[in-house]
Input
Amino acid sequence: MWSWMADRMMDDPDTMSASSSMDQLSMYGARGMFIESTDATWLYTFDDDEQNVLRSDRRTSLW
Output
């Protein structure tokens, strides 16, 4: 099992443009999950450090 959340609207090159038709973007994600299992459950995660690397100006993003 794995969880993932993304928004492709942020990939729009016109997002930072004054002529962009996107007024507002809201994203929501759950902050936890409930798992029931009869065997051991291993969960691996990556910290959200990459969010500190990404810049608000998508044209100068490292990705």
Observations:
- Residues 50-53 form the longest helix (4 residues).
- The chain has a mean pLDDT of 61.
